[in-house]
Amino acid sequence: MMAHSANISTTLNASDHAPNLAGLSQSGHTTVAVFLGIILVLGCVNNLLVLLLFVCFKEIRTPLNMILLNISLSDLSVCVFGTPFSFAASIYRRWLIGHKGCKWYGFANSLFGIVSLISLSLLSYERYATVLKSTKADSTNYKKAWVYIAFSWFYSLVWTLPPLFGWSKYGPEGYGTTCSVIWHLRSPNNASYIICLFLFCLILPVLLMAYCYGRIIQAIRGVGKINQMTAQTREHRILLMVISMVTFYLLCWLPYGTVALIGTFGNADLITPTCSVIPSILAKSSTVINPVIYVIMNKQIYKECKHRNQVTQPKQSLLMFILHMSFHLLPIPSHTLLFPSHSKSNKSIEIYCKC
């Protein structure tokens, strides 16, 4: 399979199209196309719904929520500038937009994906800072939010531009209908980049999220000693939400990173076409999951939009109907933990725990 990638890369350098691939069967390509089509549609719908909510309901345009908007924009960018090309390639069983298109696809998807990952970790840190460090959440000060957003894009560019200038490179991956960093190259140049990318763009954000949410749960337990009547129920619900967020994060991205490491340092023969395609699909599925967990299923956003809808226009009523159906039908826990109050210390923690 890795040999196929090498052959495809050589062919793309010489022509505009990759050849038909034997690494994945016709039914395999069809299955991949179906999943990518579903991800494309749901990703666009979910993230466009988030954008419409922010346009129609000014009450939710708080500084912290701008980070969520940044995540949604980067996820939507993946759906618009990436997924359609891999979807079409899976239908035709070959890469369709040439070597330059392959490099663009690899760069753009890496850029937007890392922006989302870093934004999620920064969001966890801001929640942690608000609760544990008694940082006041000023609803009129957008400076910190813009700093976070700018940092997420700058950080992502730092790690996605190097392959365009010689530190590793972008090219076909797996079965040849998607492009990314060429994991299988066994050179020191490529290996050093893969290690840095894995550590600083996957492991570090995961550790930051785990630490921040772990400290928040500890704080909730401390408050529970004061108010034991509701503490246990709140703690269980918050714990379930945190586990859901971290689990989905790892489920979407850890398999992709693991396959990349095996392809770079391990036995490449272990990476079958199926083993290469599943992590890629899981990574793209984050564009569907993120807006559901962080925005659509958020109880505070739902309540604020519902309150605003009492005196709203027809287009907002339609949005509220969609949000209402999503909020009540999707089995994902939602809590105001996602959006801190403007209070400090224990009072802030109590509002974070409110369900």
Automatic annotation (TrEMBL):
Cellular localisation: Membrane
Superkingdom as given in the UniProt entry: Eukaryota
Domain G-protein coupled receptors family 1 profile span(s) in chain numbering: 46-294
Major place of residence: membrane
Any single Gene Ontology cellular-component annotation: membrane
InterPro entries to which the protein is assigned, alphabetical: GPCR_opsins (IPR050125), GPCR_Rhodpsn (IPR000276), GPCR_Rhodpsn_7TM (IPR017452), Opsin (IPR001760), Peropsin (IPR002962), Retinal_BS (IPR027430)
Keywords tagged on the record: Chromophore, Disulfide bond, G-protein coupled receptor, Glycoprotein, Membrane, Photoreceptor protein, Receptor, Retinal protein, Sensory transduction, Transducer, Transmembrane, Transmembrane helix
Membrane topology, from the record: Multi-pass membrane protein
GO biological process terms, semicolon-separated: phototransduction; visual perception
GO MF annotation: an example: G protein-coupled receptor activity
Record-annotated membrane-spanning stretches: 32-55, 67-92, 104-125, 145-165, 191-217, 238-256, 276-297, 318-338
PANTHER family on file: OPSIN
Protein family according to the UniProt entry: Belongs to the G-protein coupled receptor 1 family. Opsin subfamily.
Name of the protein this chain belongs to: Teleost multiple tissue opsin 3a
